[in-house]
Amino acid sequence: MNLFELDTPRLVVDLDRLERNVDEMASVAREHHVRLRPHTKTHKIPEFAHMQLSAGAAGITVAKLGEAEVMADSGIDDILVAYPLWGTEKLERLRALRERARILVSLDSFEVGEGIARVGREQRRDVEVYLEVDTGHHRMGVSPGDEARLLARRLSTLTGIAVTGLLTHAGHAYAAPLATRDQVVAREIQDLVMTRASCQADGLEITEISVGSTPSARMESLEPGVTEVRPGTYICNDTAMVNLGVATLEQCAATILATVVGRPSPDRFVIDAGTKCFTSDGVGRSGWLHVVGRPDLTMEFITEEHGVGTIDRDAGHPLRIGDTLQIIPSHVCPVFNLFDVVTTYRGTTVEGELRVAGRGKVR
Q: In sequence order, which ranges of 106-145 are alpha helices (DSSP H)?
């Protein structure tokens, strides 16, 4: 079937573009001798994760235990849960997961470490943990240097866990202008390298420095001391990555097909996709949604089920009710979480459907 004959709204993925993105990031990691552990919260699809592993990724990253369970069900056996695990139920699920896969966990508190250590003691096998360090994003993580060293030392007294790495997420790199992004990355790595040296001087063996974010991954991999990078969005990209200068429109593999269902005025059109397809992330930002091949069309706003745009009538291109538009979203990660399946294609020929198996796995 031709792509533009499909019923809409629909999330579609260009496999040629996706495969090129996967191969390019794997090549960057190989060239700079760092381990690639892509964050699969972007796509939540085991088949895509296996593509990343086949291209050279050493393991994967997930945000939640539910995502880890989905990926382990598909046979993936090296998974970092980059999120603190708290509560009896989650610790029971961690215990079960460790029976079939290598599971690493990140944390930034002694309290979380105590629970995870119990799992390690019960299984008589240490749980490998990464201590999360805040290098400027101010979301999670302890301060670099003495605060991190003291927590690492305290965690090391717990039987059942092994503090093997330092982890950070340079989320603030998304807001940094391109001209200063290298400074953000340099500071991030300096903080981690300094913290590792401090820990090692205290007798703690820290072997891993794990960093991640698509805007900074290529720069991070160049920095001495980094052992692992965890980019996620790169597999599909989106207009946010384009606006940041780390991707081109031609590298955007995921788009939403939508149908024009209204032309209420000569300069306005309405499509059958709104926040339940695109999310509201990025609304109002210049170029937040990009209509492929139609520079005369600008998306203005979206509500739950409607997308409203304007047309430059001077461009002379017709737009009729029933026309199908292909639109690049602003933030592709939550977009995957809004669809049960994605349709894959090459050229304009539909190849099939894949279930978004990690959708809704927020626990």
A: 110-123
How far apart CA 288 and CA 47 sit, in angstroms, is 28
Q: How far apart are CA 298 and CA 69, in angstroms?
A: 40
Tell whether 227 and 256 lie within a shared domain. Answer: no
Residues 6+ apart with CB under 8 A from 147: none
pTM of the full predicted structure? 0.96
Query: Are 21 and 96 part of one and the same domain?
Result: yes
Give the residue carrying structure tokens 């944390």: 107
pLDDT tens sequence across 304-346: 999 999 999 888 899 999 999 999 999 999 999 999 999 999 9
Instruction: Identify whether residues 132 and 62 lie together within a single domain.
Output: yes
| Same domain (yes/no): 269, 172 | no
Cβ-in-10-Å burial (0-12, 13-18, 19+) of 90 comes to buried
Where in the sequence is the domain holding 347, given as residue range(s)? 3-9+247-355
Q: How far apart are CA 217 and CA 220, in angstroms?
A: 5
Distance CA 291, CA 306 (A): 15
